[in-house]
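Hi team,

Filling in the usual template for the complex we talked about on Friday. All components are listed, including any nucleic acid strands or ligand strings, so the model treats them as one assembly.

SUBMITTER: L.P.
PURPOSE: interface mapping
COMPONENTS: two
RESIDUES: 665
SEQUENCES:
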Amino acid sequence: MKRLPRILLVDDERGIRVALRRVLAQGGLEVVTAASGEEAVRAIGDEPKFDVVLTDLKMPGMHGVEFMRVLRSLDPEVPIVVLTGHRDAQETATLQAAGASKCLDKPVEGERLLSTLRGLIADRTPEANRTRHR
Amino acid sequence: MNDSAPDSTQVIVLILVPDAECAVRITDALSERIESGDIHLEVIAGPVQDAINEARQRISGMPLGFVATEEFGALEALTSGADEILLWPPRDDAAIQGFFDRTKVRASLRKGQERRTTAIAHSEKLAALGTLVAGVAHEINNPLTVLRFGLEACTTMFMPLTTVAQEIRRWAIRGAGASAEQIRVLSERAETGALPHEDEQMLKEMLSATMSIADIVRDLRIFSRSDSDREDLQLVDVSDLIDQALRLVGRQISTIARIERDYSRDLPQVLVPQGRLAQVLINLLVNAAHAIEEVQRPVHRVRIVTRTDDEFLAISISDTGPGIVPEAIERIFDPFYTTKRAGHGTGLGLSISRSIMQDLGGDLIVESVHGSGATFILLLPIPDQASIRTHLGSTTVPAPRSVNLLRRTVLLVDDDEYILSAYARALGRSCDVLMASDGREAIELLSSGSHADALVTELSLPDLDGKELYEWVQTARPDLASRTVFVTAEATLQRYESFMSGLPNRVLLKPATTNDLLTALDEAFKAEPSN
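RESULT (copied from the run log):
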């Protein structure tokens, strides 16, 4: 059986974790949630690799940008999607420099988020195949 | 002198002269202009500044010239707001013409300036509204996101469940049984992909998200009663208002920092337009949230402290952000000065906040150690009973806490500095306070002539304890003996049991509340008729 794409969802708001997890699961993704950057780093250590990491920015403890830095050192390849409440152009640039593949504003439509995630997963797969066939 | 009211095409000329004869001379010299309706002349006698203020109110915007026979009056007129002055007698006719021309030109410049000031004030208001809206939008976004995702998940679940329900109803109407296979297919279709408790949890989260939004809307009502109206004064409980402001924008802080509240008990209410004060609080809280984002620290704190003395109530908001460089401290209240990133502020917030506080008779000041954070202190005047009555009618005036304690001086003795200052804060609103850290210091204070009407002392003190202090008081200040209240910890009390058993005085156990202290003092004064 083909394995489902795996998403790591990091957000300190329980409501968002619970509701978004359902949306992503209904969209055919396997979801692991973490309530903080620290918890997410532990999850990355424990679990098999994730296909995409979806993270909030403003969180107690490790800030989203700091988490992305640590994440990059653990997995330089994994696409990161930032889901944030409010950002300006400069912040978007900072996030991209920190390794964010995509930034989306809350509240985002579930379908748009799903298609972004699917796009990133699809982008990775053929590339991975190419390297394998070379 | 022209008695008719001035019309808007005229130049108003106020003249200040030493005597009636001089007034006549000047009126004669200007008679042609008066008759042609070019000027409107008024002779004044009283203080220059009052005359000009009064004229400005009557004829706001019109050119206002001032004629005086001595330099001092002329200069005072200029600083009081006259557009131009003329020292009498003038050199020649050209000097008079020049005076009128300059009065008109200056008046038109002044009007332009006034229009610009109004425009700036208007843009400041809009900018302040922007800060508030951005702050609140941020708070609403999170519950909105929960609702959005939740509803999408529900929609996806709901559609197949509806068709399954219809199918079951059809079977029921037909009265036919279903095969095991049919039931299996239906149950597969009804599969939501989640465990029942997961869906229940999601619905609960969605409900609580709607509550969060309702709370925000409720708290927004602090703005509905007033905007800039100086008249719309209300008695405001500052602690409540801070809590409301925190509910509106506090999440921006609480997601990244610890919020510490240290509110002084028994804070007096202040008489302010509530919405204006809330605006300042929200602005400072949002600033604090932005500041702590600037630096990474293991633990960020935003601390809100309220304190009061006889004249002012102070609210301080401290953050653990980067602080302010010494060069910038002077400038942070300047309009348009900002250190924030683009999109985070217009640079108007602090300048508006300070001018609001100054309008309310208070102030906004800042303290900062660069590198470790900043503290903004709001000062508000404590209203006296008379102004409360004027604004609210006598029925709502809160009674003074204790008539017996008014204008009395209480000497507080405790070796714990923290406890001393806590007592001082608690009692400071009701009476004057003297403090000593042990019995010896208390005796020194009293024998050196310091006045005290009552004594509140800890029993256990280093060097000279409460018992010895009391024994000294009995001989040296017998009037104070009956007005002595002891405060001590329960454990200590046992040591003094035999001493206390013979005394009528009250003993309070630590921690004593403000009310305990006030009641005990009140009783002590009542027991013995005051002198």
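MY TAKE: The beta strands of chain A are 6-10, 30-34, 52-55, 80-84, 102-105. The longest strand of chain A covers residues 6-10.

Thanks, L.
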